[in-house]
């Protein structure tokens, strides 16, 4: 009798674990929404720059455009964009950012982006960020 109860408990546990994995998409991570990406960027970068309200809205616009372009490139080919494409997009984004920020703010922005790149490299995150990657994703 104890053996049957133990067997049933084991089967139940395995079934519940399988159901949990199935609900989670087989363990695959869903990409963050635009709002989540902007919030993460704001928390990791913008909040440290002492932005004025107009600067904040311009930065949100720049990054929304950047994330939208990145998504469209990924969705078009199903592959990660090439390093060259990412670097060009990052450089274009940073040119727009430079026009919004003061010299001191842009220096701080550049330093923060470099920190993000270093953290990505340490985590094995691939192509880096400031030069074209998805600025602060983690």
UniProtKB/TrEMBL annotation:
Span of the signal peptide: 1-22
Keywords: Signal
Region (Disordered) location: 115-138
Chain intervals with Gly residues compositional bias: 123-138
Domain of life from the UniProt record: Bacteria
Protein name: DUF4890 domain-containing protein
Protein source organism: Pinibacter soli
């Amino acid at each position: 009798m104890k053996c049957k109860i133990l067997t049933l408990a084991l089967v139940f546990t395995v079934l519940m674990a399988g159901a949990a994995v199935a609900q989670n998409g087989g363990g695959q991570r869903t990409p963050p929404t635009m709002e989540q990406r902007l919030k993460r960027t704001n928390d990791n970068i913008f909040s440290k720059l002492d932005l004025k309200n107009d600067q904040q809205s311009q930065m949100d616009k720049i990054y929304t455009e950047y994330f939208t372009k990145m998504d469209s490139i990924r969705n078009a080919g199903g592959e990660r964009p090439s390093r060259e494409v990412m670097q060009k997009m990052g450089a274009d984004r940073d040119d727009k950012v430079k026009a919004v920020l003061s010299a001191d703010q842009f220096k701080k922005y550049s330093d923060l982006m470099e920190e993000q790149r270093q953290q990505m490299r340490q985590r094995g995150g691939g192509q880096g960020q400031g030069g074209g990657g998805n600025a602060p994703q983690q």
